[in-house]
Structures are given as structure tokens and as C-alpha cells.
Design a protein that fits this description.
2 copies of one chain form a homodimer.
Chain A: E1 5-6, H1 10-20, E2 24-25, E3 28-29, E4 42-51, E5 55-62, E6 64-69, E7 72-73, E8 80-83, E9 86-95, E10 102-107, E11 116-118, E12 125-126, E13 128-129, E14 147-150, E15 154-155, E16 161-174, E17 179-186, H2 189-192, E18 201-206, E19 212-226, E20 235-239, E21 248-251, H3 254-270, H4 287-297, H5 304-315, H6 328-345, H7 349-366, E22 395-396, H8 397-416, H9 420-441, E23 442-443, E24 448-449, E25 452-453, E26 459-460, H10 465-473, H11 478-489, H12 500-512, H13 516-532, H14 571-579, E27 582-584, E28 591-594, E29 603-609, E30 614-620, E31 623-628, E32 633-638, E33 641-645, E34 654-657
Parallel strand pairs in A: 28-32
Antiparallel strand pairs in A: 1-13, 2-3, 4-9, 4-11, 5-8, 5-10, 6-7, 6-9, 11-12, 14-20, 15-16, 16-19, 16-20, 17-18, 17-19, 21-29, 22-25, 23-24, 25-26, 27-28, 29-30, 30-31, 31-34, 32-33
Chain lengths: ~650, ~650
């Protein structure tokens, strides 16, 4: 089957720039703060073929083509070229100044993975492609998400269009008479009513009565239309990702079910061309948010295309001369996400394409380490960790833990790709780093990993971040792990985490330590608290002590906060990964485990997707039942007992009960 | 004065892709064989200002703008923004997906070199700009060369339009009646008559009688129009570089004068947005050709803008992961050309902008050296040297000589830029390399530098290239220099050089060794030989033993040869640099020498441009007179005598005679 082909990852890199350029706020386009890469402008596609008899091929390109057979130009290739019989080499160079050079070949040879591509006449490599672009008219540059018409549910007392819940799309207006108009969007009523104190609006002029306009895409629940539009004719072209939600969760706790549902909607709204952080602000691709989306994706869409577009776009092109998103921590999250994609899908093709880019990113990172091998935020780095007050100068323990995990990921990746030398070297480096982390940051007195070594050499401070990631990724030996859990995560001695972003990892670590009950209690309070305030999607941040419109302020802007932020959708992951307890134990679910962790729920059931087939878990009356169509072999663990779940081989789902 | 500003070098990088995409042959666009870079797609311009009273600024951009004052967005900036009084920081981010992001600010603050720019929120650096774009409507993306109408001089017996001499422009046709047409272009009659055996043609369809079309730009002297065009209405919009030719040369030898004139026309035709190799084939920017054009430019236009556009475009963006133009030697020529620009202009601003890029190119180069520190062509490198039969495996001496010169250039550049540590390190490396070159390649037996060390360790072969560059760049100690001149350049034991490309350097070296008479004899025969065949511009290659259309063939294509190739315009340089003998001895002609070398010419006179002012030299009746408006101090050397030429300080030119 012929598909459009291109230089690997360039479709994602180009699309990212187009998507990020759609971020509009304060009446302007808001460009990203990092380097925005372009696709290569000229590439050469190459295919060796052998035909028993002369054939024909039809060529289509995004850009201008130069066509050669065995190195000699085919003058003026028309709609079809003649392919002589025998063994030959077809090369097609494509140059495109304003977008992605791409090629489609049909006929007796077809553009597919048998074409290789290069941008420098030398380094030919496998083409990039997507099964979605499988016809000459399905040009990659025409790619857009599907839309559905959505009418407002009503008009509020204040005269706002109300679409009933958080949404994303193109508002469509019809002019009642000619004249200028302004549309103010709001995730909240207050924002839509705030005029230019809000974040987003559009202006325009109707030329004549009856004119229909489709405005730029925005996040909104409410819209205020100032100007001569026929409000009764207004509707939204809601833009969807078009992906099937392959998971489910339902429990005896209605509040938790509602939280799952709103979290799932949040995930759905933020899963677009890429995993975005938020749909109002900022519509950019961030590695910290992306890692969480990748984890959530494995318990919802299981869509590897969105994951890979996101991760390829995040990494961009060489040179790696600044951390991803300008943030030190984000380079590490990006590497971990590449590994998570491999581990859940079992498909090493993307990992293989990213490996050299992981290596160059790690080379860059290791250029800036201290004598102990610790990374230190440079003047050019944003050391983020979390929106929380904490000192960040010097060597932060949490950054070392993430570096250690990234080195482990590189070692494991090298091993998968058959690079034993690299695997051993990265493992040695990881082991040495782990030793130094324990030697420098472990405090016997406090019984945990301390926050940082300040520039003056003092090791001090206590935050939850380093112990939490160390627990999650298994850096600590058993007794230290136990003590860190007690002293950092289960005590009040370190400040509480207030963003859903970092609570995600804290809850993950707590679940793994058997603290389901505490986690669910926190989820009901924190996520439930937003729902109590009428949230129809999960917010970027939530502080129960705030009141009224204070909930909408952030970054010093009255409506700066994003009310649909994917890092708040963590319950999607927690329900599948921990309450139902489903996880692969070998890449691609070749083997897996089901370890339910209901945390006091009377009943819970749901579905977790795998690369092929689903795993359905039902907890009821103290018993657990698994129905599986997963091709791998599973093990069910429940209340000290275990049962094997055979690989599915067709027919009815296989069953296991305890 | 306000000018359009951009990320440094990106205007040149973007323009190069646009220019190279205009190469058309065999009815197709022919993309370059190297990586084609894009400008950064999103950049941030920044300016700290202080105003005593509130002011206003008008902003224009290529792309979409996001405007902040002191870090906070200015919502919906209209045509003008208000600038509060006091000290503030204005930042304007510009994002452009299909071209160069650029900004123009006028009013109480103006876009100029006081703005800095970055593409990653961190590394702010001086903006790129050109004085040519000094008004809001003079947008950089509208840049094009000026054109002049040129009518054909007649129609040949074969029915070809004849423009009288080699030209470059857009053929304009008027339809006599509707219907399809094809236009075949020829630098020679034979090519225009050869149909699709030729290199370039255009096709189209006239919709109606009287329709006027402007075809794409091509090199041509002749055109054959097939189809219903009104041939009497056909003309050419000849495209010019618009630069003043600041040099002159005239001698008592009419043949030499004709050669100078045709060489100058060749240089003029190939000096366009960039220094191109040839105007028919291949309209790409090549560093080997560019170095010669840079040298010629200092004896003709003295236009630093074309030089710097060319050299910035050649280097492109990071990463440096392949030699310039894919050719090992070309990286070295590029570095030498950057230095020549500095040395003749005395302006280190461009050198300063290129220095880091020279360092990264050298870092790459040095990753692939042998135990002796010799560069060896890798699988990904094209080891070019010259179009001539010679073995190129192993360590070629000529490549080591060029590497040595490049290391010297880096050391000198570092010194100019105040980087003493770098200067010393590169000098040490250059000295060590020179020692190894002499130890390995110098043959006492043959009395010259041998061609290469083969992979089996044998040092063998004798070509002119290594001795020639070693002489030119002063690598050899005096006695060895004398012997290499005799044994390699003045003997027949090494094969003769047959391209004007390498003859350029050979003649330069011979002139420096006092062999003016032999050089001029060669020029009269070789360049004169082309003129005898009716050449109106200098060819890419010339073999006097060929006959008829064989002169036009190359690369296995009957009309593959370029008949207007700048590497043949060397006489422009030789006349000014050697016959008139003018050269700077300190950067920017702060001091200079005039050492005429007439090679038996009875009389010769001419002008050589300097950064400010010209130097006019007249040789007549055994005497030499210099008239100078150069701001530096010169020394005239003639027949064992010398005279000082005072710096010009206004008024009549200063004089010196011997």
C-alpha cells in the first residue's frame, strides 16, 4: 500500500510549529520560547527496484521534484514515468521552501518503507510515513483533526453563549447586519465577561448581513459576542482527536466515577495533534506534561501515533544545544517517555529512531556536571521541578534522581537495540551516580534524601520530590525506601505538593507502597473539590482555600490559569494502573500482571487496553475476575494468592478468578 | 536609521535556499545535494530603552508578532504602541512558518543594531540587518535583483533569437495566437538547437493572442521559441547585480585587454544574490568557487555584502555534520575566504559572527584525522581537489596543506578577536601539522611534496596541487620552496592542470615567484583560445584539442558544460593583484604595497579598489606612477627601488612615482 513518505520525524516537527503558532492570547499569536525547528527543505528519496517487465509509476510531491533513474535525470517527468525492466535505482529529490517535502509514488513501485531518504546525499535512512496518508490526495500538509457541530446549550443571564462544558473548536457566526464584532472566550463565565482582561478574543468585521465566519480555534465553555451577529445561529465546530477511548472504569463510588469521567474528558481535550498541556493556555508541547500524557495514554487511547508525534516533535532536530522546553528536568522526562512508549507497545522502531537523539541529548547534559557527576542548572537552564517555593541553586537531589533514571533508560534502550557497549557504559555511569546520590544526599538523621547541596557545600532542605522519584524509580535500597516513604511522603515534615502535576507521581509512589486508601481519600478531596465548584475539566492548579474568581488567576493574570490541563487527568492512569492493577512486566505486554489495589472500594471494574486486545478486571464482593484478549501471558495477584492468565489465542476472552 | 532586523545570517540562509531552488534543468527544479537549512521560525527581538517623555513606536513584521513591555503582553498592538517614559524593555517575538521572521520598528525607538535577538529565550546576540532594507515597505522577503530590458540583436539563420552575448534573465514572450509553446535556451547555438538534449527549457500554453508571459530566469545567449509567439516582440529582462565595478585594467596588449573584459563580464554574471559558480549550471553556491570570487571581488566590486551573504549561506546553521558542499577541501576554502574578507576589509564584524562556526567546523574536521593528524576522506566526504584523474584514497598531501592553512586562519582569527588561548592552540596544532607534512610528504629525491600516502603506507605520486598551495600559503622553507617551484610547477614531471579553477592558484603562485611572463603566455593561449572560439564569457573547462560541440559536453551530457563559470574569471584578480601589484599588507589596507609585475607588457594601467578610495597604477616607458585615494599608507616597489605612498587625507589623490 502506497503512503506519503518524508524525512523521518519531519512531519511531526513541522506540524508542531503549525500547531504552536495557533496559540493566540491577548489578540496576538504567541510563539514558543524555545527554538522552533523546520523540516529539511530538500531531501532525496531512493528506491532500488527490480521488475521482470517494464512498468509505470505515478509521482506526486509536496514541493518540486527532480527525478533520476540510475543517476541520470528523467527529463520532464509527466504524470507517469516509465520504469525499465531489470534492476534499477530510482531517486526523487524533493525541495519545498514553506513546508514538508514529501513524496507519493503509485504504480508498479510504491512509496512505502522500502524507500530510504537523506538530506545530504550520504546518510540514507528509513523514511517517515503514516498509514493515515495513503492516497495522493491525502497530502500530509492538509492534515487536520475532524470536527463536529455543537450548538450552545443556552444563553446565560449575562448573555453569554454556554456550550455546557469545556470545549475546543471554531466558533461560527452569522452576521445579522454589517459591522465590527469582538468575541470574548471564557473557560469560566467570569473570564468571558472580563473583556480584554481575559486571555483570548477575536475581532473582525462583517461585510454584509448573512455573512458566515469561522473564527480561529479556542478553548471555551462560554463566549460573549459583541457586535451584529445573529446569536441564535451561532455554533461551535468542535474539534476532536477522532481516537477511540479503549479503556473504562466504574466503581461503587459515584464521586470517583465522576472524577474519572472529567479526567477522561480533560485527557481527550488535551490529546490533539500532540499531547498538549492545556487547550486555552498554552497550546504548546511540553515534555513534563507529555510524559504524564504518555502514561495516561496507555490506560486510555493506547494510540502510539500521538505519542510518537509528540516525542519526535519535542526533541526536534540537531543540534541539541538547550534542554527540551529550556527546562533541565524536561530532557529527562522526555527520555523516560520514549522508554515508556517502547515498554508498553513492545515496538522498538520509534526507540530506534530516537536513540541517537537521546545520546546527543545526554552528551549535552553531561557536559555540565559537577565533580560528583551531578547536573547543575546553568544560566541557560530553567530548573522547574514544580510550581512551588523552593531554593533551586546548586545541585538539586531530584535532578540527580531524574538523571539517574534517564541513564538507566539509555542503558536499557541500548540493550534493546543490541548496543551492548553503550548499555554497559550507561549502566556504569548510572550505578556510580546512584552511589554518589546516596553518599551526598541521604541523611541518616532525617531518614530521607535531602533537597539539595547549596553552592556553599551545605546539604540541606527537605522536599518531597527527590524521595518520591527515588521511590517510584527504585533508586533506594529497601530499608532506605521504607524510611523515605515514612519520613517524606507520609509525614508533614516536607511541604505538601499542591499541583496535580507532582501529585501524580506522589500518588503513583504511594499506590506502589500499598497506600491506596490514602491516595483515594486525597483524590476525592482534591479532584472532587474542583467538581464541587462546577469544573467540567481538570484545572492546572487548585487551592481549596481560594474563593470565587481567585481560582482563575495565575502568572499574575486574572484569568491566566488553565481550566483544562492534562496534568490533572492523572486519575485515568491511577484507576487502570493501580485500582485495577494492570501493567506489563515485559515489553508490549508479552507478559503482564494484574494486582488490584481497590483502596477500600466495595466494587470496581474496568478495561485496560494492550497493543492487541484488552484486559477487563472486575472486583466484586472480595473476589476478582479477569477477562483478557491480550496476546501475552498474565499473572493475577490477589490477597496473597496468584493465578495464571493464559495468552489469548482467539475465541472467547480467557478468564482468571481469585 | 531604522532597518529591518533578523536573526544573524538567517537572511542569507533563507535566500540561498530560494536562489538554489531556481536551478532548473531538464524541465525540473534541481535541489542541492547538501542539507538545505531554514531560518529559525520564531525569534525574539529585545531592546532596552530609556525615554525622557512617553513616546510611540510603529511595528511591522514578516510573520506574526507578540509584543511585551517589561515582560507583560501589550494586548492587540495596533499600528502604533505607546512607549512609557523611563527605562523599559521592549520584546517582540516574531514567528514565521514559510520564511524569515523579521521586524521593523520606527518612531521614538527604531530597529537597528541596538536590538538583540535570540531563538531560545537565552542567547541574545546582535541582530542581522542590511542597510538596503531601510523602510517598512522594503521587506527582506521582497528582495530581488534589478532588471533591464534587453532586445535580441537579431535572429540567426536557424531562427534562434540571439542576444549577442552570454546573458541571464527572464525571457518575455507575447502570444501571436493561443496554443502551447516550448522555449529552448542555449549558451551556444548548438545547445539551443538540441531540443531536450540541451540543459534548459520552459513549456507553457498561451491562453489567448496578445498574452504576455515572463518565463523563469535562465542563462542564455540564444533561444529557440517553438509555438505561437510573436518573435518580434520577444525580449529579455536581464537581471543585474546592480553593483558598481570599481576596478579597471588596460594594457598595450589587446588580447589581454579582451581577456580582462570577458573575465569581468563572467564575474559580473556570476555575482548575483551570491557568488555563483555558473549561471546555467548549476546556480548553487560552492565554497571552492566562492573563495575565488571573494578574491576577485577585492579587485572588482569590493562589495562586502555579497561576500558575507555567500559565506554565511555556505556555512548555514549548526550542526556541522558534513563538509561544506559535501566536499572535504571546501570547508578549508570557506575558512580561508572568511579570513580574506577580514584581511581586505579590515572589518572584523563578520569574522566575529563566523568564529564559533569556524570552530565547530574545525572540531568536526579534526574528529576524522589519522595518527599523524592528517585528514582522510571519509565515506561521507567528496574529496574533490580538481576535475582530473588522480588517486584520492588515503592521506592526500594537498588536503593537509589546506588544513594547515585553515588552522593558521583560525589562529589568526582568534588573535584578532582577542582569544589568545585559542590562537596559541591552533598555532601549535598548525606547526605540528606542518612538521608532519614535511616529514611524510617531502621527497628529497623528487625535490617536492608528493601527492599522497596510500592506505598501504606508500608515499607516492606527483601532482601540482600540494606544492602549489604550499608555495602560495608559505608552508615551505625557502630552499624547499625553490625546489618545489622548479620540480613541480616549472617542469613537466607532474600532469598539467587543465581547469581554470586550479590554474588560478597555479598562476597566483607563479606570479609570486616572479614568473609573470610564463603566466601571461599561458593566459593568452588558454583564455585567448576560448575567445578565438567566440566565447563571450569564460567556460568551466577548456581543452584546446577538442573541436566543435565537443567543447560543450561535460558530465556525460552533450551540453553539460557551463559556458559562464566564475572560476574562469581569474584574470580579473591577476591583473590587479599581480600585474598592477596592489595588495594590503595589513587588514583593511591600513598599509599596502604596490609591486607591479608586468611580465613583459609595454604598458599597463588600472585601478584597484580599497575599503575607502582607489589606487590607480600606471606603467609606461619603464616607469610606474601611483595615484591613491586610499586612507592607508602604501609602499611602491619597482626595479629594486621603493617609494612611500602617503595616506590620503582628502583633496587631490596622493602620488608616487618610480
Amino acid at each position: 500500500m502506497a503512503v506519503w513518505i518524508w524525512f523521518p520525524h519531519d512531519f511531526s516537527i513541522d506540524l508542531r510549529a503549525r500547531v504552536e503558532m495557533r496559540r493566540r492570547e491577548h489578540g496576538m499569536v504567541c510563539p514558543p520560547i524555545w527554538r522552533v525547528d523546520s523540516p529539511g527543505r530538500a531531501v532525496t528519496f531512493r528506491r532500488e527496484y527490480e521488475l521482470a517487465a517494464p512498468g509505470r509509476a505515478c509521482l506526486r510531491a509536496q514541493g518540486e521534484m527532480y527525478v533520476c533513474l540510475d543517476g541520470a535525470a528523467i527529463p520532464e517527468p509527466a504524470d507517469e514515468i516509465v520504469l525499465p525492466a531489470g534492476k534499477h535505482v530510482l531517486t526523487v529529490s524533493v525541495m519545498h521552501l514553506s513546508g514538508l517535502p514529501a513524496l507519493f509514488v503509485s504504480g508498479d513501485i510504491e512509496s512505502d518503507e522500502r524507500f530510504s531518504v537523506c538530506e545530504n546525499n550520504v546518510d540514507f535512512r528509513p523514511c517517515g510515513f503514516s498509514a493515515a496518508f495513503d492516497a495522493p490526495e491525502k497530502r500530509p500538509e492538509l492534515y487536520s483533526l475532524p470536527t463536529l457541530r455543537r450548538d450552545p446549550e443556552g444563553v446565560t443571564a449575562e448573555g453569554l453563549l454556554d456550550f455546557g462544558r469545556e470545549s475546543f473548536g471554531f466558533l461560527c457566526l452569522t452576521a445579522a447586519s454589517p459591522g465590527p464584532y469582538t468575541v470574548y472566550y471564557g473557560e469560566s463565565k467570569e473570564e468571558a465577561l472580563a473583556g480584554k482582561q481575559g486571555e483570548t478574543w477575536d475581532t473582525g468585521v462583517f461585510a454584509r448581513a448573512g455573512e458566515e465566519v469561522r473564527l480561529p480555534s479556542h478553548a471555551l465553555r462560554y463566549a460573549r459576542v459583541d457586535g451584529p451577529a445573529d446569536v441564535r445561529a451561532a455554533y461551535l465546530l468542535e474539534e476532536h482527536n477522532g481516537l477511540p477511548w479503549r479503556a473504562a472504569f466504574h466503581s461503587g463510588d459515584a464521586r470517583l466515577n465522576a472524577i474519572y469521567e472529567v479526567s477522561a474528558r480533560t485527557m481527550a481535550l488535551c490529546t490533539r495533534e500532540f499531547f498538549l498541556d492545556g487547550i486555552k493556555r498554552d497550546r504548546w508541547v511540553w515534555a513534563g506534561d507529555a510524559l504524564q500524557s504518555v502514561l495516561l495514554n496507555h490506560y486510555s487511547y493506547f494510540d502510539r501515533a500521538t505519542t510518537r508525534r509528540t516525542l519526535a516533535a519535542l526533541r526536534g532536530r540537531e543540534p541539541f544545544d538547550q534542554h527540551i522546553n529550556t527546562i533541565l528536568d524536561y530532557t529527562f522526562y522526555w527520555m523516560i517517555a520514549v522508554w515508556e512508549d517502547y515498554f508498553y507497545t513492545g515496538d522498538a522502531s520509534f526507540l530506534s529512531g530516537m536513540y541517537d537523539k537521546m545520546v546527543s541529548a545526554m552528551d549535552y547534559t553531561l557536559r555540565f556536571v559537577s565533580a560528583d557527576g551531578f547536573v547543575v542548572g546553568q544560566k541557560r537552564d530553567w530548573v522547574f521541578v514544580d510550581w512551588a517555593d523552593m531554593p533551586k541553586e546548586g545541585e538539586l537531589c531530584v535532578e540527580q534522581v531524574l538523571l539517574w533514571k534517564a541513564l538507566c533508560v539509555l542503558s536499557d534502550s541500548a540493550a534493546v537495540l543490541g548496543r551492548a557497549g553503550d548499555a554497559a557504559a550507561y549502566r556504569r555511569r548510572a550505578d556510580a551516580l546512584r552511589e554518589r546520590i546516596l553518599a551526598v544526599f541521604w541523611s541518616e538523621e532525617v531518614g530521607t534524601l535531602l533537597h539539595r547541596r547549596a553552592p556553599d557545600g551545605t546539604v540541606c532542605g527537605h522536599t518531597r520530590y527527590a524521595p518520591m522519584f527515588a521511590l517510584l524509580y527504585g533508586l533506594l535500597p529497601e530499608d532506605k525506601a521504607r524510611r523515605a516513604m515514612e519520613n517524606s511522603l507520609l509525614s508533614d515534615s516536607a511541604p505538601a505538593i499542591t499541583t496535580p502535576y507532582m501529585r501524580f507521581y506522589e500518588m503513583d509512589a504511594l499506590f506502589r507502597a500499598g497506600r491506596a486508601r490514602e491516595v483515594l481519600q486525597g483524590v476525592r478531596a482534591y479532584w472532587g473539590g474542583m467538581l464541587d465548584l462546577g469544573a467540567t475539566s481538570i484545572w492546572e492548579q487548585f487551592d481549596p482555600s481560594e474563593t470565587g474568581a481567585a481560582h482563575y488567576a495565575m502568572y499574575g493574570r486574572p484569568f491566566g490559569r488553565s481550566l483544562c490541563h492534562c496534568w490533572g487527568a492523572g486519575p485515568v492512569y491511577l484507576c487502570g494502573r493501580h485500582i485495577l492493577g494492570v501493567a506489563p512486566t515485559a515489553p508490549g505486554y508479552a507478559s503482564y500482571e494484574v494486582r488490584p489495589n481497590p483502596g477500600g472500594l466495595q466494587s470496581a471494574s474496568g478495561t485496560v487496553p494492550t497493543p492487541e486486545g484488552e484486559i477487563r478486571v472486575t472486583l466484586q464482593d472480595g473476589c476478582v475476575q479477569v477477562q483478557s484478549t491480550c496476546r501475552g501471558a498474565g499473572t493475577l495477584y490477589w490477597q496473597g494468592k496468584r493465578a495464571e492468565i493464559p495468552p489469548y489465542a482467539g475465541g472467547d476472552p480467557v478468564l482468571a478468578c481469585l
